[in-house]
C-alpha cells in the first residue's frame, strides 16, 4: 500500500531542489518573458510569420516620390493615408531617396492604360532597410489594385474568357489571431509538460546512476513511493505555470475563454506525458538512453495524436476562442483513462525492478 504522506514529503523535497536545476529555471524564465511581453513579441514574430503584417502595423506616414505622368496610379497612391506623395522629376526623386528624404520612388512608364504596350512601374527603395519592407508591402497592394484596373480597361482584347475560381472556403484571416491562438497559446501551455517530462527522467535516473537510491530505500519509503513523489513534484509545477501564463496573456489584452477547461486539459495531457517519461526512466535507469527513447517515442505519439481532429492542441485553441464542441469532455475523459492505465503500467515496471 502506498504511503501518501511519504510521497508528499518526497515531492516537497524535489520541489525545493528545483531551484538548483539551472536548465529548468532558465526554460521557465524564457516562458515567463514570452508571456509577459506577448503583446510586443507578437508584433515582431507575426511579421516573421507573415511579412505582410509590416504594412498593417505601421502608423507612420511615408514620403513617396512619384516620377511620372499624372495617371491612375498617382490617384491610388494619394488615397493611402499612410503615404505622402510628391510629384518630382526622376533625377530629383532618386537624389532625395539617396539622402533619405524619401522612403521610396515610384516611376511608371508613360504608357497609356489602353495602349498595346505593357505598363512598366519601377519602385526604388533603400537597400537593407526595415522601412523598405513596409513600403514594399503597402505599394504592393496599391499596384495590385492598379493591375486590376488595367485588366478591366484592356479586357476587350481577350480572345478567351478567363475562368473565375472561387475558393471552397474563405482564406483571408487575421495573422495576429492565427499567431496568438494557433501558435503562441499552445506553445506556452504545453511547454511545461515537455519540461516536466524531461525533469522527471533526470530526477529518477540520477538516483540510479549516482547510487543514492539505496540510501533512500533505507528509509521507510519504497521504490514506488520514491518514484511517485518525483512524479507528483513534476506534475505540481504544471498548473502553477499554466495559470501564470494565462494570467499574463490576459494581462496583455489577449482574450482567453474557458480557462478552467483549458487548465484541466493541459494538466491531464501533461500528466500522461510525465507518466510515460517516468516509466521509461525506471525501465532504463540511465539518463542518456532514457531521454533518447522517450524523445523518439514522444515524437511518434504526438504525430499520431495530432493526426486526430479532436486532439488536445486543437481543443485548447478552440477552448481559448470559446468555440470548442461539447465532445472536448470526452477527450478529457480519454486523457484521464490514459493516465490511469499508465499508472498501472509504471507500477508494474517498478515492482519488476524492485524484486528483480
Brief overview:
The protein has 356 residues and is mainly α.
Structure description:
The chain has 356 residues and is mostly helical. It folds into 2 domains: 4-36 and 174-354, no CATH class; 53-157, 3-Layer(aba) Sandwich (D-Maltodextrin-Binding Protein, domain 2). Helices cover 67% and strands 6% of the residues. It has helices at residues 4-17, 22-36, 38-49, 53-57, 72-79, 90-98, 130-153, 175-209, 213-217, 223-251, 259-284, 287-306, 312-321, 328-354, and strands spanning 62-66, 83-87, 104-108, 121-125. Strand 1, helix 5 (72-79) and strand 2 (83-87) form a beta-alpha-beta unit. Helix 8 packs across helix 13. The chain is elongated, with a radius of gyration of 30 Å. It starts with a helix and ends with a helix. The model has no long low-confidence stretch (mean pLDDT 81).
**Kindly, what is the distance between the CA atoms of the first and last residues, rounded to a whole number of angstroms?**
19 Å
* Number of discrete domains: 2
Helix/strand order, N-terminal first:
HHHHEHEHEEHHHHHHHH
Tell the overall outline: elongated
Q: What class do helices, strands and sheet pairing give?
A: mainly alpha
Amino acid at each position: 500500500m502506498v504511503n501518501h504522506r511519504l510521497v508528499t514529503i518526497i515531492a516537497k523535497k524535489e520541489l525545493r531542489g528545483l531551484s538548483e536545476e539551472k536548465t529548468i529555471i532558465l526554460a521557465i524564465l524564457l516562458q515567463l518573458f514570452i508571456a509577459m511581453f506577448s503583446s510586443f513579441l507578437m508584433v515582431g514574430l507575426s511579421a516573421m510569420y507573415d511579412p505582410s503584417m509590416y504594412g498593417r502595423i505601421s502608423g507612420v506616414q511615408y514620403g513617396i516620390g512619384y516620377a511620372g505622368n499624372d495617371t491612375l496610379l498617382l490617384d491610388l497612391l494619394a488615397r493611402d493615408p499612410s503615404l505622402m506623395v510628391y510629384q518630382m522629376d526622376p533625377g530629383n526623386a532618386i537624389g532625395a531617396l539617396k539622402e533619405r528624404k524619401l522612403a521610396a520612388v515610384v516611376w511608371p512608364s508613360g504608357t497609356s492604360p489602353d495602349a498595346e504596350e505593357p505598363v512598366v512601374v519601377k519602385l526604388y527603395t533603400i537597400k537593407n532597410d526595415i522601412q523598405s519592407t513596409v513600403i514594399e508591402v503597402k505599394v504592393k497592394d496599391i499596384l495590385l489594385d492598379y493591375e486590376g484596373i488595367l485588366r478591366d480597361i484592356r479586357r476587350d482584347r481577350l480572345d478567351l474568357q478567363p475562368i473565375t475560381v472561387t475558393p471552397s472556403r474563405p482564406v483571408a484571416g487575421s495573422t495576429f489571431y492565427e499567431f496568438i491562438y494557433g501558435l503562441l497559446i499552445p506553445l506556452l501551455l504545453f511547454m511545461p509538460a515537455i519540461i516536466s517530462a524531461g525533469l522527471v527522467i533526470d530526477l529518477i535516473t540520477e538516483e540510479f546512476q549516482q547510487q543514492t537510491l539505496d540510501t533512500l530505500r533505507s528509509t521507510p519509503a519504497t521504490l514506488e513511493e520514491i518514484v511517485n513523489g518525483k512524479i507528483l513534484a513534476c506534475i505540481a509545477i504544471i498548473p502553477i505555470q499554466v495559470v501564470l501564463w494565462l494570467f499574463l496573456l490576459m494581462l496583455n489584452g489577449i482574450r482567453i475563454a474557458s480557462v478552467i477547461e483549458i487548465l484541466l486539459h493541459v494538466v491531464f495531457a501533461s500528466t500522461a506525458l510525465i507518466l510515460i517519461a517516468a516509466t521509461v526512466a525506471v525501465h532504463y535507469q540511465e539518463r542518456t538512453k532514457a531521454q533518447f527513447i522517450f524523445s523518439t517515442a514522444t515524437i511518434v505519439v504526438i504525430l499520431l495524436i495530432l493526426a486526430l481532429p479532436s486532439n488536445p492542441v486543437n481543443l485548447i485553441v478552440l477552448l481559448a476562442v470559446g468555440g470548442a464542441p461539447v465532445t472536448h469532455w470526452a477527450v478529457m475523459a480519454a486523457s484521464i483513462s490514459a493516465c490511469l492505465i499508465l499508472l498501472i503500467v509504471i507500477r508494474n515496471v517498478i515492482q519488476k525492478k524492485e524484486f528483480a
